Amino acid sequence: MEDLQRNTVGEDHASNPTVFFLSDSTGITAETLGNTLLSQFPGQRLERKTIPFITTVEQAREVVATIDRMAGSGPRPIIFSTAVGHDIRAVLAQSRGLFFDLFGTHIGQLETALGASASGQPGQAHGLGDAVRYQSRMAAVEYAIEHDDGQSLRALERAELILIAPSRCGKTPTTMYLALQHGILAANFPLVEEDFDTMALPKPLLPFARKCFGLISQPVRLSQIRQERRPNSNYASLTQCTYELRNAEEMYRANNVPYVNSASMSVEEISATVLQRMQLHH
Amino acid sequence: MEDLQRNTVGEDHASNPTVFFLSDSTGITAETLGNTLLSQFPGQRLERKTIPFITTVEQAREVVATIDRMAGSGPRPIIFSTAVGHDIRAVLAQSRGLFFDLFGTHIGQLETALGASASGQPGQAHGLGDAVRYQSRMAAVEYAIEHDDGQSLRALERAELILIAPSRCGKTPTTMYLALQHGILAANFPLVEEDFDTMALPKPLLPFARKCFGLISQPVRLSQIRQERRPNSNYASLTQCTYELRNAEEMYRANNVPYVNSASMSVEEISATVLQRMQLHH
């Protein structure tokens, strides 16, 4: 709480409201839905402040006091709350900010639909939760690091997914995302020039062709990204990028490896596509 | 869409409703809020199906047909939707499922508060979005891999955060999470027995004491985790774990390094705590 008061939240609140993400747990859900809604207003430069772990009524009152001070001297703050505790929600709802109760809005209907009462326990979504599932995510992160960029071919048979692509098409961050968020055992394997002597998959991948998913990109985009790593190299040249991408795509087609052009996709979009196409959702 | 029909969604829907996460983008926000709400009903075993990238009215109609078939032969499906497009939302809302319109519920109030109209463009939240921010996240993932487990001491001055802890307290997945989700340049550094000869920070960290955050754990828990890696080793013994954890905590205190006991915390909870305590939110 002291952190909040020391901070310069809302310095420029003369023009734009400050956005608060409030939670009795991590605040991740409040940030996710709140930012999704705010992304619909790209012109607005909004200061954002996450206050997680509001677990007592006293803490809630301090947060409200801060918000109310801000409301007194500038535009009305916007609040996205996923607080679960009844007393804490009641206190937060009394603030002078515009209060979006992301938990309370829907929970009643859900109780009716499921014929059960909400547990009222905060921290169930991003806590340890299901221990088996949690451990599988942590094991997947280790696996992803160990099998990044073809580093280890050991235990490739354990992989649920092998992402293949020429260098700098997005393999590594996608693998990490799938491991961390979904617990997918994902390896990744770089395609290099020698791999294109024939259109067969690289030898270590042959037994696992059905686990492979390919990425390609746009030559100009790839060349830009490679320039950052090795300026003025053959590796970064447009000719080389074009050559590798064309051959990679041909290899995917020849071996029925599903693939996507990742040039204008985020790691989240690539991951969602891979999960859908490979039917990998856990 | 074909994938959906081939799939055995809702096989056991005699007893429990199937939950759908629908989106014209990745579906991440629908999953996040939906799962947060559902985590309040831990007794329910619900089958869950994400259908991302519903970008045409025809696709929306196919999804509705699938849901309606299910509604005809079992409990009413539950739908969490973050679809943005007006026409697509209108079609999805006509299904016989219980429809939670996570976008439409709040967007009107937000338009009023901000005095602006929603752009109506899907995919703004988990797409490439702000290119600078996106590139900084991807660069942070690379940095995290390069600086995992003290592997590289190069460019430690670029780190915004250095997580320090004895082996297996959760440094690596926390670093990856902070890099991938928040674009934090985070290194991590293992504390080993020799580091405890004095209570000073290890030499490479001395110039960066203010960037350090420590983790400890519970001896029994740590011993269990280490047993999985190296059964019956001194490394995994309760004596050794107790020794390392006690000394690590003493080192943190002696050097004013903030720290947290991660034994019963998820990587999301550790990350939210680190962000809050180190004032690192971007």
What keyword list fits this structure?
homodimer, 10 helices, disordered N terminus, Rossmann fold, 282 residues, 4-stranded parallel beta sheet, 2 domains, alpha/beta
DSSP strand count of chain A: 8
Structural class of chain A: alpha/beta
> What kind of assembly state do the chains in view correspond to?
homodimer
Radius of gyration of chain A: 24 Å
Short recap of the structure:
The structure is a homodimer of 282-residue chains. With 282 residues, chain A is an alpha/beta fold. Chain A has helices at residues 2-6, 28-38, 57-73, 86-93, 104-114, 131-146, 171-182, 219-229, 238-254, 267-277; strands at residues 19-22, 48-51, 78-81, 98-101, 161-166, 186-191, 212-216, 259-261.
What topology emerges from the helices and strands here?
The structure is a homodimer of 282-residue chains.
Chain A lengths: L1 H5 L12 E4 L5 H11 L9 E4 L5 H17 L4 E4 L4 H8 L4 E4 L2 H11 L16 H16 L14 E6 L4 H12 L3 E6 L20 E5 L2 H11 L8 H17 L4 E3 L5 H11 L5
Parallel strand pairs in A: 1-2, 1-3, 3-4, 5-6, 5-7, 7-8
Helix pairs in contact in A: 3-4, 6-7, 7-10, 8-9
